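Internal tracking record. Fields below are filled automatically when a chain is submitted to the structure queue. Please do not edit lines marked as system-generated. If the sequence contains nonstandard residues, flag them in the REMARKS field before resubmitting.
Queue: standard
Priority: normal
Entity type: single polypeptide chain
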Amino acid sequence: MTSGMAADRLTVRGIELEVRRRGAGRPILLLHGFDTVDPEAPFLDGLARHGEIIAPSAPGFANSPRPKDFDTVYDLVHLYLAVLGALPGDKVTVLGFSFGGWLAAEVAAACTHRIDKLILVDPVGIKISDRETPDILDIFNKSADEVRRRSWHDPDRFAPDYNAMPDEALVAHARNREALCLYAWHPYMYNPQLPRWLGRIDVPTLLLWGESDGVVGPDYGRAYAGMIPGARFEPIAGAGHHPEIEQPEAFIDRFRRFIG
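SYSTEM-GENERATED OUTPUT FOLLOWS
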């Protein structure tokens, strides 16, 4: 498998998306997290052995333009429902990371007839504590050092070095952050109604969680799994909010065993 992901464009309901693809076979719809997926990330090769990865950049992220009236999580959910309907084959595996895990859960709660398996990796999207207790690290209002420390098990090894990034990557990161703030600022990173509807998900579901995640902790993940009928919760040691980056072999092994 060669490194990199082929860049493509996809237009759905008049909205143009940057889409990256890798591999062949059953479709695996990958919904990115706070940042779009690094096409050089090692875990992608492992995923591509099990199907065709289709990874759209949400409107406003990376190189996907955002229509002026497109600015809510439910705009994204309905868009991804349309993407799901446009993909080939009868069934699609849906894989969502962090913010994309929230969107994947919303999509699955709305419609599962096109989904065969659902994998959520350290997703946000729900609130489990009282009003005064934060469940999700406020990445916009905490210091960059704290966000870095709490996002990674080993930040010195895995956290991105923004000073070393090329200009194109820095622009994409800035667009990602601006778009994330637009979609997920209020309420911050969750939908108060989602827990009520997670019980509608009727496909095999796996939640993978970095044991050292300081953005959304493992107890949050266990509560999330408990709201989805039959969902499995599996922690990954030696990983923070991005187990696919810090522990790619363990991540791929769990993915492989789950999808069979």
